[in-house]
Amino acid sequence: MIEETVKAVKEAEAGAENIIAEAKLKAADLQKRAEADVSVIRSDTAKAAQEAYDERMTEARSVGEKKLAEADSETQRQVEALKAAAAEREGSAVDKVIQTLL
User: Fold this and answer.
1) Structural domain total, the chain
2) 3-state SS string over the chain?
């Protein structure tokens, strides 16, 4: 009977050691998986941030180019208006110079 009890205790200890060993392996595996997941998440986050940055920069460039084109168009319109006004006044200015000389 004592031998059976000792044997049962030793078997229980061996079983417990196996459970502990398996738990350590599972913990190490879970840690590796978690580290891999973190790496993927970091990579995905960095990629998403870069994509968002690129998109915003593209939008900003587009808006800037549009505003520049609008400013150029407005400047051209003003130049044409000034040329037209100068052309209108040129005739009367020449007439005034001629009248002054006569």
Assistant:
1) 1
2) CHHHHHHHHHHHHHHHHHHHHHHHHHHHHHHHHHHHHHHHHHHHHHHHHHHHHHHHHHHHHHHHHHHHHHHHHHHHHHHHHHHHHHHHHHHHHHHHHHHHHC
Q: Where in the sequence is the domain holding 92, given as residue range(s)?
A: 1-101
Span between the terminal Cα atoms of the chain, in Å? 148
- pLDDT tens-digit readout, 53-81: 999 999 999 999 999 999 999 999 999 99
Name residue, tokens 């229980």. 12
pTM above threshold 0.90 = no
Hey, what are 12's tokens?
Answer: 């229980």
Position 2 confidence tier, pLDDT thresholds 50, 70, 90? confident
